[in-house]
Amino acid sequence: MAEAGRRFGVGYALMPKKQASFIQLSLVDMLKERGIDLVQIDMGRPLADQGPFDCVIHKMYGEEWRKQLEEFRAGNPSACIVDHPDDIRRLHNRISMLQVVEELKVEKDAEEEEKEGEETFGIPKQMVVYEEERLVDRSLWEERSLKFPVIAKPLVADGSAKSHKMSLVFDEVALGKLKPPIVLQEFVNHGGVIFKVYVVGKRVVCVKRKSLPDYSDEKLGTLQGSMSFSQISNLTAHVKDHEKYYKSMNLEEGEMPPQKFIAKIARRLRKAMNLDLFNFDVIRDVRVGNRYLVIDINYFPGYAKMPSYESVLTDFFCDMAKEKEKNAIVGPEALLSDKKIRKVVSNSCCSQGDDGALPVSPLKREEENPVIPV
Question: What pTM does this model have?
Answer without folding.
Answer: 0.83
